[in-house]
Design goal:
Elements (H helix, E strand, L loop, with lengths): L1 E7 L3 H15 L7 E4 L4 H7 L5 H7 L4 E6 L9 H13 L4 E7 L15 E7 L9 E4 L7 E4 L5 H16 L5 E6 L5 H15 L6 E6 H10 L6 E4 L1 H14 L7 E5 L7 E5 L16 H13 L3 H16 L9 H13 L1
Parallel strand pairs: 1-2, 1-3, 3-12, 5-10, 8-9, 8-10
Antiparallel strand pairs: 4-5, 4-11, 6-7, 11-12
Helix pairs in contact: 1-9, 1-11, 5-6, 7-8, 9-10, 10-11
Bound molecules: 3-isopropylmalic acid and manganese (II) ion (MN).
Length: 343
């Protein structure tokens, strides 16, 4: 297993170290793990001015998968690393599925704690929409400034992510797919999403489908999240909804994600949904569980289903023993999970 590792900024290196610890503990002896670490992020940018040189992009592409911690630092102008590194990787490696499970673990804390029926997956489009960088500014810095960001939605891009979501719904017990958009306002993009969704739905008569405007979806995420199974949505709606999803399924410390290239033409990339959390970086307080669960997604993507399930079971058992009055640190949680898997 050739794994590229990008620890990145803030708490990234701390949580990635625990993710790798757990990976080493769960891998069967016949799988030889080779990791290559990439020094990318704020430190590198300050030292050299480089964000993601072509040679490194090329070399990252030679791996079976990428594990990423977090990108972004307040000392770097906003967007430089986010666009130049994280989004560049998603676009260059055609990560058109951004898979973000929202499962309420038993014993997780939060507003919905104890509701066993919360188990959904958000399929967020990863290469288009408002993230495409299709915009510009005129008369910058003057009172007459005009700024535009135009959402890019191609028939090709919309259809492939919707197809992935239907195929995923086919293998889930509840077999339901919800399209989330805002087609009462974003009529052009909304029309493309809805007509494509309806056309692909005809090929999946066994899947129950529905549609929600994104604002209404935020209400249901809080009041009735058990109504969701698979959700498909565009890049920005998916970004916002999955932070909310994390908040209602045990917190951002548990939310995992996979940036998938389902065709396998480039490596897929796995990362916690949370950011670099500069306020707690270096304190050892970050919860590495989201990274550990992202490692489980990575293993499943590479066909190691049994190991993925073992990690998820270890996390569930660990969550059951967590005491909110005595929070453990990053390393302690990683050690506890690794010990469970080794034992
Ligand atoms: C995420 C993050 C990124 C995004 C940022 C850091 C560019 O918020 O992975 O959800 O907006 O996609
Ligand atoms: Mn986000």
């Amino acid at each position: 297993m050739r794994l590229a590792v990008i620890p990145g900024d803030g708490i990234g290196p701390e949580v990635v170290a625990e993710g790798l610890k757990v990976l080493a503990a769960v891998l069967p002896p016949d799988v030889k793990l080779e990791t290559s670490e990439y020094d990318l992020g704020a430190r590198r940018w300050h030292a050299t001015g480089e964000v993601l040189p072509d040679a490194e992009l090329e070399s990252l592409g030679q791996h079976d998968a990428i594990l990423l911690g977090a990108i972004g630092d307040p000392s770097v102008p906003s967007g430089v690393l986010e666009r130049g590194l994280l989004l560049k990787l998603r676009f260059a490696f055609d990560h058109y599925v951004n898979l973000r499970p929202g499962k309420l673990h038993p014993n997780a804390v939060g507003p919905l704690a104890g509701n066993p029926a919360v188990d959904f997956v958000v399929v967020r489009e990863g290469t288009e929409g408002l993230y495409a960088g299709n915009g510009g500014a005129l008369r910058t810095g003057t009172p007459a400034e005009v700024a535009t960001e135009v959402s890019v939605n191609t028939a090709y891009g919309v259809e492939r992510v919707i197809r992935y979501a239907f195929e995923l719904a086919e293998v889930r017990p509840r077999r339901k797919l919800t399209l989330v958009h805002k087609d009462n306002v974003l009529v052009h993009a909304g029309n493309l999403w809805r007509t494509t969704f309806d056309a692909v739905a005809d090929e999946h008569p066994g899947i129950a489908t529905d549609y929600l405007h994104v604002d209404a979806a935020t209400i249901f995420f809080v009041t009735r999240p058990e109504r969701f199974d698979v959700i498909v949505t565009d890049n920005l709606f998916g970004d916002i909804l999955t932070d909310l999803a994390a908040a209602v399924t045990g917190g951002i410390g548990l939310a995992a994600s996979g940036n998938l290239n389902p065709a396998g033409t480039h490596p897929s990339m796995f990362e916690p949904v949370h950011g670099s959390a500069p306020d707690i970086a270096g304190t050892g307080a970050a919860d590495p569980t989201a990274t550990v669960l992202s490692v489980a997604l990575l293993l499943r993507h590479l066909g190691h289903d049994r190991e993925a399930e073992r990690i998820e079971a270890a996390v569930a058992a660990d969550l059951a023993e967590r005491d909110p009055a005595a929070p453990r640190g990053t390393e302690q949680i990683g050690d506890a999970l690794a010990a469970r898997l080794a034992g």
